[in-house]
Amino acid sequence: xxxxxxxxxxxxxxxxxxxxxxxxxxxxxxxxxxxxxxxxxxxxxxxxxxxxxxxxxxxxxxxxxxxxxxxxxxxxxxxxxxxxxxxxxxxxxxxxxxxxxxxxxxxxxxxxxxxxxxxxxxxxxxxxxxxxxxxxxxxxxxxxxxxxxxxxxxxxxxxxxxxxxxxxxxxxxxxxxxxxxxxxxxxxxxxxxxxxxxxxxxxxxxxxxxxxxxxxxxxxxxxxxxxxxxxxxxxxxxxxxxxxxxxxxxxxxxxxxxxxxxxxxxxxxxxxxxxxxxxxxxxxxxxxxxxxxxxxxxxxxxxxxxxxxxxxxxxxxxxxxxxxxxxxxxxxxxxxxxxxxxxxxxxxxxxxxxxxxxxxxxxxxxxxxxxxxxxxxxxxxxxxxxxxxxxxxxxxxxxxxxxxxxxxxxxxxxxxxxxxxxxxxxxxxxxxxxxxxxxxxxxxxxxxxxxxxxxxxxxxxxxxxxxxxxxxxxxxxxxxxxxxxxxxxxxxxxxxxxxxxxxxxxxxxxxxxxxxxxxxxxxxxxxxxxxxxxxxxxxxxxxxxxxxxxxxxxxxxxxxxxxxxxxx
Length: 568
Fold this sequence. Notes:
By secondary structure, this protein is an all-alpha fold. The protein is 70% helix and 0% strand. Helix 8 packs antiparallel against helix 9 (189-201), helix 12 (238-250) runs parallel beside helix 14 and helix 15 (303-314) runs antiparallel to helix 16 (321-337).
């Protein structure tokens, strides 16, 4: 009977294959006919062939070929029989590759659901068998491996594995075959297909849980990323696919990555040295997943190494940099919230500068970046708690950023974060000289005044305590500047006179700030010129509703101001 190229396999070629297997000869001819028949791009014909059992028929034939290869115990291509078997395998796997890559996703998915264990087991077996061979068969061997890996990649990438029941031993067999090829093959289509297959497999939760116990998988992926082979199909590097696989595996609950020191240090190295925002952000996401989902994760790098890695991500400025910055902010927040690192161990001027700059550059935040700005704002508060400025240039830039964030155009949440950060910094004695030498002192005092008048109780208390902290210094330089700032002086006087109502906490800080100002003789005459200050303090000390401690402070201020010639 005459056979046309596009005849259905169920009518002609499947019986031919079965007959050839039973007679134990003619298998190469039958498979060659199949390869020719499937060499077209008519999707509906491929779909009908799949429905008729083409994929399974081919796999059975290929299994028969590989069994004969095992029995012959000859390397592929080393004898005439081995060469015949190789030709048969090449034809069969070529036909399989054409069907799986050219059919519709729906038809392939149905086939995978019905035959997933046989399908994956056979393809994994073929990968292992076809890897054998001598130098004379290298071209055909490469073709076999390429078409087999293409078929496997097509199956896992085009079929939805979420609802497919794959047995655990089959997953392990498949991973073992892929790892073996990745370890033995150089850069090229076979290596790319193998790692791409792993990446697709790892996207399905139940599959990646099984993959996490595969011996040698993590080491193999790290080695691929280190080599960073490029120039592979589809414009995607082998290293990128390996990173994607690592990322997916890290999302498995109870994974073992948290105790893998080499992997963690490698991720930190990638974040520090890579110039790719995609690589940096993926490495940061993997680290975050490791400390979210691993069993008893341990941080193996030093705090300085971690900060340097985060700074590299925060400083990315290319078009996709914002996603990288968001990931790094999220990772740092996660580490601090879960006590992976202590804030005081990573508080550095350059880190606070990077976070405050990032917050300012994205203020007011767009809807897309709102979550990042919220996280970054919280970081300002946390990182400033125990920070001692290490250089004046950095401190000046940090203070400028915090002042800019305190403006009326900023969301109240960021203004509150800025007020808390300024308060935290002012509590540390070593930082006060940086406030005193700040190039924008008038703007700083204006910001503190606006916080106090914001109507937000917490913001007001932060501002008054900051003013008190800056006044409470022995040198008196900051006191001198504050006392001569009309906005701050007027604010303090209006608060103690009751013109501006504040909380009891803020009121106490206000009286304490005035006492600190009055403790420095250059300020006493200036304060006494405010004619209402002494009568107000006398009334406060005599019958004010404040605490006895506040009244004592008021009396001390009166005594200090009595040294001047002007009391009223």
